[in-house]
Amino acid sequence: MKRPALWLSLCLFLLTAGLLFYRIVWLGYPVFPTAPGKTWQLTISAHLPAGTGEARILLGLPAENPGRMVVEERISSGALNLSLTQEGRNRVGVWSGPVESGGQEISYRATILIRPRQASPERPPAIGPYPDRFAREDIALAERLAGRWKGLLLSDLIRAIAATAGGEWKNPPPEMKDLDAWQVLARGYGREETLLLLLRAANLPARRAEGLPLSASIQNHLLTWIECWNGRNWEIILPEKGEVISHSEAFLPLAVGGFPAFRVDTGKLTEIRWSLSQEFVSRWSLHWERIRRSSSFLDRWSLFQLPPEFQRTFRILLLVPIGTLIIGFLRNMIGFPTFGVFMPVLMALAFRSTGLAYGLGIFAGILLVGYAVRLGLDKLRLLLVPRMSVILTLVIVCFTVLALAGNKLGMREFMAVGLLPFVILTMVIERFFVLVEEAGIRQGLRTAAGSAAVSIIAYGIISWEPLQLTFFVYPELLAAVAGVQVLLGRYTGYRVSELLRFRAVGGSS
Amino acid sequence: MILKAFRGLKQAGVLGMNSRNADYIMRCNPRSFFPLVDDKLLTKKRSESFQIPTPALYCVVDRYGDVAGFQAALRGICQFAVKPARGSGGSGIILIRDCAEKGYISQSGELISLQNLVYHISDILSGVYSLSGLEDRAILEALIHPDPVFDAVSYQGVPDIRIVVYRGVPVMAMVRLPTKASDGKANLHRGAIGAGIELNRGTTITAVHRSRVVGNHPDTGKPVGGIQVPYWEKMLWIAARSFEMTGLGYIGVDLVIDRDRGPLLLELNARPGLAIQLANRKGLKERLNQIDQAPAEVFATAEARVGWARKTFM
Fold first, then answer.
1. Cβ <8 Å between B128 and A438
2. Fold identical between B12-51+147-312 and B57-142?
């Protein structure tokens, strides 16, 4: 008798296990898709004013490296042509074409994942030649100044050179005339150039970078810094103060090696803005990009392919079967009395918009009002359908009154009342009434309390984000849920509540 | 602690709700046979052909046009019960004990005008008392005058006897005695008390009142145990025959004992409750297993099944 059910659930479990195995081993899905990663949302937006004719704008875009992943990019170019090119180590977006008569907005949006642990190993960069603009005696001066720090460790050397930007020279102090000559040079070429010269003289690979410090901000100009290779990774020198920051992942370069992060070849650009905001997403979203391009069947049929607004719905929907599984468990194994199978789940779904406390309060209030009205209706002896219609109308009236009151009091939770399942509420009122009539008020209240408890538990489960994400990435888990449901359906043992109910029988023998 | 309690129930052979549903109702009661027990009129008609006595049927009203004609059909009978054929939980039942000048007197002494009774019957036809909301028929049948045997231990109303029957074999029995709390209704949920009946001899044993074991009726104060139920053999036979009658393997048979006509089949229940175990302080499961192991000849006739049950379930 039990065998077919066991086989069925075993098959469902194997199906889940097989698909999971395939996804994890072949497709490289994350085993724990819920571990959160830190991502940044970068937005570059610019306005091209009207009447400028042809335009050609170049914007430096974030590049990928082992410590940084560009997960998702969205570019809007309006009527302009857009091309992505490579300039040196940089990715550059080129917007070109005639500007519309009303002006034009262009924007670039990217989700960037920073993975500090995987930041190395980048190939150590080669040391380039001295830039042409420096005269031979300037180079000799730089080499003389840098030569005094020969014995220092690389990181100390970088710090010593960086300190010169603030006018501080570590021992041994250089000769006065060298110092004076260097200051003249610094005034002429600027701090960044002279720092780069000094770093080159000390045989340290270094480059100029333009970009943003990684912190939530909106900027209309970029920060310039110098990146210097310390043998293992890049260190950041902020030329303003001569400060050294050894964790380069705190900065997001948009252009390195002397290329500008934005350039206007022709036309005019006003109001360029770079904004950064932080987002916590789970690791699964990083697979989004990969999955979208993948040709594998399961990837192409992944829920990630849905537009985001529908994805949200499915994140919840996929958990509803767990909700009903829990209800099955609480009813058949524990013995919770509930109004029907679906009522607690639908209540739990509605609580997501009203909040738990308000949702339960509203539920109890409407049930009470509904019961009172139903009691009066009973004397009229209305037929089933009109009777239910009257109750339904009452429920809708309650919703309306609550929403209006919520609006007056400025309480959003009351306004969200319309999302409560009104059909279910109507049926609950009817069933509550019948139960009270047939089995007494105590049984009615017990069932109402049981339903409320079950919907709270179901609410907790469907609101649990890690579980949502896990089911979203691995929808095949539903087969396993069905397997457990089948097993539960074959549970013919006692309910915990029956231990209490039949204690007089159990104790007597 | 909980595990021990689980084992305790198992050893006592208690039948749980899950097991009842999956192992007995779903297995033994084909869905297509349910209408036969859900509709009292069908039950009554079928009972007749099996020589099972039921309260005398005076008239059936199944069309609105016939409502006014029920008085003619009664031919001056002043004691009757009006019931919806598919009502549940005793709703929509009116008991009439006398005729009055412009109507009837109900069991509780209330005057019900003829017009109101007509309304009530129309309500029944339109399905007000049928929970599924389907159209229904109204039954007018003989009023039951309960046998005085339970008078000392019931508060108004009519005590009824429930026998659970598995594969045609009576398994367990109890009598439900109305109390003040149950408003004279023989409904355990409402607070009626259930007294177990020894299957062999047909004598009552201790009773259960709201899952508490009691020795005396809460209103009359008289002991409920030790009462010999009359017509016991006949009642067991009716119960056993209901298997052939309905084709349902697991069924609750509700009987009343009329002062004049003796035991009558009141209704059948395809989902009998589990409280009978409390009334008898005995588990059903143990007996159900015994029936499953019984030799085939036991099941040959209703008489054989009753004989075997009386011998086995002491």
1. no
2. no
For chain B, which residues make up each domain, given as ranges? 12-51+147-312, 57-142
Helix (H, G, I), strand (E, B) or coil at A202: coil
Amino acid occupying residue A68: R
pLDDT, tens only, B83-102: 999 887 677 888 898 988 88
Rounded Cα gap, residues B275 and B162, in angstroms: 11
Q: Looking at the domain that runs over B57-142, which CATH code has it been given?
A: 3.30.1490
User: What ipTM does this complex have?
Assistant: 0.81
User: Which residues of A lie closer than 8 Å to B, measured between beta carbons?
Assistant: 1, 332, 335, 381-385, 434, 437-440, 443, 489-496, 498-499, 501-509
Q: What CATH number was assigned to the domain covering residues B12-51+147-312?
A: 3.30.470.20
Question: What is the CB-side half-sphere exposure of residue A379 using CA atoms within 13 A?
Answer: 4
- The angle, 0 to 180 degrees and rounded to 10, between the axes of the packed helices A308-317 and A465-473 is 110
Task: Give pLDDT tens digits for B122-176.
Answer: 888 888 787 666 788 999 999 999 999 999 998 888 899 999 999 999 999 999 9
C-alpha separations of A251 from A89, A91, A163, A178, B39 in Å: 16, 16, 20, 34, 79
Q: Which residue of A has its CA nearest to B278?
A: A505
Determine which helix (DSSP H) or strand (DSSP E) holds A354, and give its type and residue range.
Answer: helix A343-354
pLDDT for the residue numbered B83 = 92
The predicted model scores a pTM of 0.68
